[in-house]
Amino acid sequence: MSEKLRLDKYLWAIRVFKTRTQATAACDEGKVKLNGASVKPARPVALGDRYDIKTPARKWTIEVTGLLQNRGSYEVAIQNYVDLTSEEDLKMNQQMASSFFTGKRLSKTGRPTKKQRRDLNEFMGGDEAPEDL
């Protein structure tokens, strides 16, 4: 393929980063490396290139097997690279994943639920909303 493809666009297209802006920022911050050297986001991608990528969620080592111009489904994206991440990094990725916030609110912290607000209003003797709306 003779067309040039920017590195940040490629990383976005294969779904390593959620946005091109994040891919560009990672390249600028030195979190994407080719043969141990940081690369710029506008660098052209070639077949056979091996990149070491560090994201907040995990570390990747990928080899380019195909060029993908536009972002597609996950099934299409994984056909355009080979994941060469070492066993050591995979274990670290699993440990990091288990320590991340799951999205569930911890008990008795933050805003009360609707039921907790109703119970509190009833306890405090406050005005309650009419039951039949």
Automatic annotation (TrEMBL):
<feature type="domain" description="RNA-binding S4">
    <location>
        <begin position="5"/>
        <end position="72"/>
    </location>
</feature>
<keyword id="KW-0694">RNA-binding</keyword>
<comment type="similarity">
    <text>Belongs to the HSP15 family.</text>
</comment>
<dbReference type="InterPro" id="IPR002942">
    <property type="entry name" value="S4_RNA-bd"/>
</dbReference>
<dbReference type="GO" id="GO:0034605">
    <property type="term" value="P:cellular response to heat"/>
</dbReference>
<feature type="region of interest" description="Disordered">
    <location>
        <begin position="101"/>
        <end position="133"/>
    </location>
</feature>
<keyword id="KW-0238">DNA-binding</keyword>
<feature type="compositionally biased region" description="Basic residues">
    <location>
        <begin position="105"/>
        <end position="117"/>
    </location>
</feature>
<protein>
    <submittedName>
        <fullName>RNA-binding S4 domain-containing protein</fullName>
    </submittedName>
</protein>
<dbReference type="InterPro" id="IPR025708">
    <property type="entry name" value="HSP15"/>
</dbReference>
<dbReference type="InterPro" id="IPR036986">
    <property type="entry name" value="S4_RNA-bd_sf"/>
</dbReference>
<dbReference type="GO" id="GO:0003727">
    <property type="term" value="F:single-stranded RNA binding"/>
</dbReference>
<dbReference type="GO" id="GO:0003677">
    <property type="term" value="F:DNA binding"/>
</dbReference>
<dbReference type="GO" id="GO:0043023">
    <property type="term" value="F:ribosomal large subunit binding"/>
</dbReference>
<dbReference type="Pfam" id="PF01479">
    <property type="entry name" value="S4"/>
</dbReference>
